[in-house]
Design goal:
homodimer; alpha/beta; Arc Repressor Mutant, subunit A; Aspartate Aminotransferase, domain 2; seven-stranded mixed beta sheet; four-stranded antiparallel beta sheet; PyrdxlP-dep_Trfase (chains A, B); transcription (chains A, B); PLP-dependent aminotransferase family protein (chains A, B); transaminase activity (chains A, B)
Chain lengths: ~475, ~475
């Protein structure tokens, strides 16, 4: 890392840790040059880099400021879940969401689907078509149980961006991130165990915990910095925790990214209590700014962290390609994967490996990062305009999901029911908790805000909320 | 069913049940006509049909005889496994087999891979290529969690051939049969439970039992009629059995198909003790003669049978497409499937649905049935010629796997080790038992016997057996 990059990185860290907020004035060029013992031009280069990355702005005759993206609404408060391990409920609700997918709802804000209409995916389609013609023998036969060697190689190469040094042999390809998480959970837990999760937490993880006969202990979680390490340590003291399962970067649904310092402290805690971490990094590559945040895995020297990810959110879910870097649990996770599905289909693995190798993946990501940041800002703007007073909204730095806290009296299960009658779906907050908390929260996707249906849907949701507040009964369907 | 088909079916049943053996003379045309009260020409048509199906032959001036395929060697004896539930071992050995697949072994008799070089699969490749171009939006997005509607429809249609009336909505598409079996097991068992299996038994099933924390109880099994129903009933009396897991048709590895009467009796037993059956029908469509045997599911009126299958053996394993008809366990199995891998990739589902709809599947099967029967006969001939005296060989009526019992003194783990040095692999018998029995057995594939490497490999195996019998030590690699 060059000197000016180091300086830029330090300033960026301070912004991330909250020393400087949006709109705050940054130290003068002279001040920073003295602090770091570097030249004026080095500081100027550092500030230039941060401007390129969209982190800061220069105001003429005044200095440098943390870029104010927009007037953002208040964030949801740190969560306060039930402080004991629970059997996860909510399957019926989730089933409802799954089944809806192929039903009549036209604006599915409930689902975390990436933009698959983008031109940057055309080369992927071309590769699938080509390889289906030229690699017939391979696509008809079993791929290696651990996955295609080329794809493992490309994933190891990409992992460098998150600070990880992985050998291709350390990677196992799975059917999406869900299989990676499911196999990891099965490998490190037994029925009756307790697993720690953040709160709110991704429903696919908490339900996978449930069907393993494992209980979930939810930990208070801050919408910017993530899981409370103090609460986590208390939990480690109090309960026989078997594993921790987190999405520490561009979290679903809350949007937080744990600062590196928290990630390092978490790892130290895990080491002290000898507990493995299942790290879900599925939205990591969709960070709006570069370099993308480091994975906790990247700080791990003991093989304690099981890193799970996929291309379902960054490329396309229909590929069903995920992966796990299982650390010291490789043998067991490989066995579970083999006995769950033998191996992952070869055609899409080969096409994706080529897509990455030929540079299309990075090109695609560049466009998606810009689009999704724009989508976030647009949808937040509409929510501010249309939702009832007191609404709080998460402010993610990557991905395309918003976590919205509505006034107490609004039950989002009822909101969802009313919305569906207008062909709109949301993901009700209760889905994201083992205990069915978050009754007045919802998760919505903001992908493709350029489509007028999205703005219209937000306006409709706002109207429905106000009808609910005014206790206007739902008209019976004619 | 027409009259002559009814008569043919009755004669076929009697042959299947063992009233007439190979080479036996069948009733005269006149005799049969009197017995059934049908015309002479109806019986002639019936015998004509059976000749077309390769079941019987006509000898000039003598009459009709059950076709003698060849002088077949003695079958292995009914198995006598350990009569108590066991934790399944043998994972290390299985891992060895899995890893070998992409290693240097050139003649892999160990693996159950179908012929994927056949011209009858060309339309499938063409469909994959075409659909990848025309259905881009669909292939990049999640398919319904239960699978593509078109494919479910085609599977329901095909199921009629095995006597099943399934509604497309009763079917869930999975990642191969392994995911179908794995999800079914997870849905009906809990750790500590006991599941009944045949013996020998497919290693993918017994290992899936193991990682669920369930114990396997192996039941004595006959190489022609399958699991002993008397022993099964005793087991039901003696142990708290949670489920039965069987491949009752063209069994892997033993090759048996349970006669319909046994299938019906088994179902009655299951009903009496209120136990579900997981029926693996993966080789059912590869029965050499038509109509293919009925599934146990086809006799089930209560939703007690969970029918699992896939296109991995009948079409191509690289598609990774299987399915389950979960009966009364639909809700739970759908949940487990969703939380294991969310959904199955859409492209191959769509292509396979079209492949079946356009009649290519049935055309492909017609060719494969003939080829695999020819392969079976060729490989049995070479085994008879080359293997030590006392060798017994299974005589499957479908599929492409042989179960070979060698003289007691031959340990097939050692045989496999020696064979690998000559670039040949076999599946050692111990893989097929929870307790590591069948030390002097092996399973071999007989696919593609037209390739001279197969005959050569059998000759090599024969030589290695004789060297082992003569206690010639293995030469150390130079």
């Amino acid at each position: 890392m060059k000197l000016y990059e180091q300086v830029a990185s330090t300033v960026k860290d301070r912004i991330d840790l909250g020393y400087y907020h949006e709109g705050d004035k940054l130290p003068s060029v002279r001040g920073l040059s003295q602090e770091h013992g570097v030249s004026i031009s080095t500081v100027q280069e550092a500030y230039g880099l941060l401007m390129d990355d969209g982190v800061i702005e220069s105001r003429p005759k005044s200095g440098y400021y943390v870029l104010k993206h927009q007037e953002i609404p208040e964030l949801p408060a740190t969560s306060s879940p039930v402080p004991e391990p629970l059997v996860v409920a909510q399957w019926q609700k989730l089933k409802h969401i799954i089944e809806e997918y192929h039903n009549q709802v036209s604006t599915k804000l409930s689902l975390a689907l990436p933009d698959t209409e983008t031109a940057t995916l055309k080369p992927l389609i071309r590769l699938i078509t080509e390889l289906s013609r030229t690699e017939t023998s391979r696509i008809l036969n079993y791929e290696s149980a651990v996955g295609s060697a080329e794809l493992c190689h490309q994933i190891a190469r990409l992992a460098v961006d998150s600070g990880c040094r992985l050998h291709p042999d350390e990677i196992i390809i799975t059917i999406g991130c869900q299989e990676a998480l499911s196999c990891s959970l099965r490998a490190v837990t037994e029925p009756g165990d307790i697993v720690v999760v953040d709160s709110p937490s991704f429903f696919g993880s908490v339900q996978a915990i449930k069907i393993n006969g494992v209980k979930a202990l939810e930990i208070p979680t801050h919408p910017e910095t993530g899981i409370s390490l103090e609460a986590l340590e208390m939990a480690f003291e109090q309960w026989p925790i078997r594993a921790v399962l987190l999405t520490p970067t561009n979290n679903n649904p809350l949007g937080y990214s744990m600062p590196d310092k928290h990630k390092i402290r978490l790892l130290a805690l895990l080491k002290r209590y000898d507990i493995p971490l299942i790290e879900d990094d599925i939205y990591g590559d969709l960070n709006y700014t570069l370099p993308r945040p480091r994975t906790i895995k990247s700080f791990d020297t003991e093989g304690r962290v099981i890193l799970c990810s996929s291309f379902s959110k960054s490329v396309a879910p229909g590929l069903r390609i995920g992966w796990v870097a299982p650390g010291r649990y490789r043998e067991h996770i490989m066995m579970v994967k083999y006995l769950s599905s033998l191996s992952t289909p070869p055609l899409t693995q080969m096409a994706l490996a080529e897509f990455i190798a030929q540079g299309y993946y990075e090109k695609h990501l560049r466009k998606m990062r810009i689009n999704y940041q724009r989508d976030r800002d647009a949808v937040i703007g509409w929510l501010k305009r249309d939702m009832p007073e007191g609404t709080r909204i998460s402010y993610p730095q990557g991905g395309y999901l918003l976590w919205v806290e509505l006034p107490n009296e609004i039950d989002t299960n009822e909101l969802d029911r009313r919305a569906r009658l207008e062909s709109i779906s949301i993901a009700p907050g209760t889905l994201f908790s083992a205990s069915g908390k978050y009754k007045n929260f919802m998760r919505i996707s903001c992908v493709n805000s350029a489509n007028p249906a999205i703005e219209k849907a937000i306006t409709t949701l706002g109207r429905l909320c106000k009808e609910m507040q005014a206790q206007i009964p739902l008209a019976e369907p004619v």
